[in-house]
Amino acid sequence: MSSALDVGRPKTNPSAAPSSTTSPTSSSSSSSIQNYRPRAAILGAGISGLSASISLRRAGWSCTIFERSLFSNETGAAITLPPNASLCLSRWGFDFNKAEPVPNWSIRFARADTLEVVKSEDYKGFGEDLGVGGEKGHRGSWGVHRADLHWGLRELVGAQRVKGAISKSKKKTRETEGKVDGGHGTKRVVDGGPVRIELGREVVGLDCEEGAIEFRDGTKLEGWDLVVVADGAHSKLLPSILPSSSTPSSYQAQPTSRSIYRFLLPLTPSSPFLTNPSLRPHFLPHSQGGPLPGFLSWHDPIKDVLWVSYPCRGGRVLNNAIVHDTPPQPSGEAGESSPPGRGWSTAVGKEEVLKVLSGFHGAVRALVDLAYGEEGEEKEGEENGRGTGEKGIKVHHLFKRPALNSFVRGKAVVIGDAAHVMMPTHAAGGAIAIESAATMEVLFRDFPSDPPQLEEFVKRRLQLFDQLRIPRCNLTMLASNAGPKWLNVEGVEEEARRYYKGPLPHKDTLPWTKEFREVLFCYDAFEAAEEEVRKEEEAVGAASRSEAMGSELKAGNM
Ligand SMILES: Cc1cc2nc3c(=O)[nH]c(=O)nc-3n(C[C@H](O)[C@H](O)[C@H](O)COP(=O)(O)OP(=O)(O)OC[C@H]3O[C@@H](n4cnc5c(N)ncnc54)[C@H](O)[C@@H]3O)c2cc1C
């Protein structure tokens, strides 16, 4: 079954009605070369795929997303957006007011047994000065409900905000030039038009050199100028990008011994957060004398259970994530092919959760009770229609994967969890994917309109993508997968240094404290890519000047 959202391309577009083998470029055969708009296929519509299509659209590309699912479920959890991600969203015109993120301005480390805070750091305003463009007040560090982030990205995918704007009736066909809201103002931005999203379209094959993709129903689409693989941690398409000598253990996500419980709770004046004297000091709003909003991290060192919570959705919802050792599974449920909680939505029983939390202060039981709730109570997200209707606690098994040496091949590039599978230790996987997408916006704009030159351009820019993204993504992944002790874990620094040459924090720096934040989260992907493009253009200019001089000399004209 397949359905399409926001059909932004002409009806003759073969991707709308694929025959057994069709070319996405054939619809432009009647257009002149000058009007040729390069086409990108984006495989997967998670944070990475949506962000990539926003970027490529801003770079003037025509984009089609192929998504396996029908978008029927949003995940009932929040995500932290550090400044490296929020500055991208801000420049893209993401609607922060609608998404209602809550600032992340503090971290408090507390004992699980007594709930006593043993260390804390406030960082109000962190990262707000990073980057340019967008609204300054939207940069910085945030906690946002995943459903709200996804909705905001989907809105940008379908309705890029461009100055000198397109009227609603014309927006599907008219090319629009102008300065995108929140842009640098120095670069011409050509809007590639609303992105086409095809749901229920599982891609099962990829030919990177030809830019061809194949669907589960046997149909094929060939001739894409760029294919962005964004099909998540358990990517089936990644092997097509890797060298043929790669073994499954080098690219398959491997289950770790850790899992995470996740659940959202309503944060209201009558909830146990504020009525229970042991919990109240942790959750009292800042305006009423409580701490600055941000991470609260309760740790039980004996069982190594870490409960991290932070507010989202205007402060009305509390996001909870409890990282713990995966309890032994009843026989037949574990195993590489079907690890427990491979998705996001495996329900877990209250008894199991309470067992894992046996080393915690008794007051936390009230929060677990609240998560399971009573029949007939309002379900999560009902207040704004963007929820999941979920009740109870879900478990998600955590996976890792070794670092890759390259994310590109031929006309294809892999981004997001498909490129780097990381533990949520530092709340960084989605943010680094948004960075990668922003990098693509800079690398793929100002493309040549002549197809052979375009092919060469794409190849060169994909090399730049690797140069920029391998160090950043692999550093972030290795840091996340090593756990909170990061550089103190044997071999991790050496491995990070294979890919990354920049500064590292001191070995004993705790997650999200100053030195740590500056290395992982103070990165402007636009600026870094612009610098790399400038260097490349200078090198190309110098090479062609010396070639011209050589020809002149040969011809005896000098
Ligand atoms: C517990 C937890 C907490 C986290 N917290 C944070 C945080 O606070 N901050 C942060 O930045 N990151 C966080 N992350 C990481 C972040 O959630 C991920 O990095 C991010 O969601 C990955 O997005 P993605 O688009 O790459 O992959 P996915 O979200 O997995 O999306 C992949 C998409 O591809 C589709 N698809 C799959 N196969 C195919 C196919 N063959 N054809 C077509 N479509 C296909 C899927 O249906 C899906 O829609 C956390 C992760 C976990 C597990």
Which bin fits the share of residues in helices?
A: 25-40%
Kindly report how far apart the N and C termini lie.
68 Å
Q: Please, how many helices?
A: 15
Mean pLDDT equals: 83
Query: What spatial order of strands do you see in the largest sheet?
Result: 8-7-18-19-20-17-22-21
- Contiguous low-pLDDT stretches (5 residues minimum) are 1-20, 25-31, 159-189, 332-339
Question: Which CATH class of the domain at 73-159 and 254-400 applies here?
Answer: Alpha Beta
Major sheet description: 8 strands, mixed
Kindly report the CATH topology of the domain at 73-159 and 254-400: D-Amino Acid Oxidase, Chain A, domain 2
GO molecular function, one term: monooxygenase activity
Region (Disordered): 1-32, 165-191, 321-345, 536-558
InterPro entries: FAD-dep_Monooxygenase_BioMet, FAD/NAD-bd_sf
Keywords: Monooxygenase, Oxidoreductase
Question: How is this structure best described in words?
Answer:
The chain has 558 residues and is α+β, with helices and mostly antiparallel strands. The protein has a domain at 73-159 and 254-400: 2-Layer Sandwich (D-Amino Acid Oxidase, Chain A, domain 2), CATH 3.30.9.30. The longest helix is centred in the C-terminal third of the chain and has 32 residues, at 451-482. Residues 1-20, 25-31, 159-189 and 332-339 have low confidence and may be disordered. It starts with a strand and ends with a helix. The protein contains 15 helices and 24 strands. The strands form 5 sheets. Strands 8-7-18-19-20-17-22-21 form an 8-stranded mixed β-sheet. Strand 14 and strand 15 form a beta hairpin. The structure holds flavin-adenine dinucleotide (FAD). Flavin-adenine dinucleotide is lined by residues 43-49, 66-69, 79-80, 202-203, 230-233, 236, 260, 262, 321, 396, 416-418, 424, 427-431, 433. GO terms for molecular function: monooxygenase activity. Residues 1-32, 165-191, 321-345, 536-558 are annotated as: Disordered.
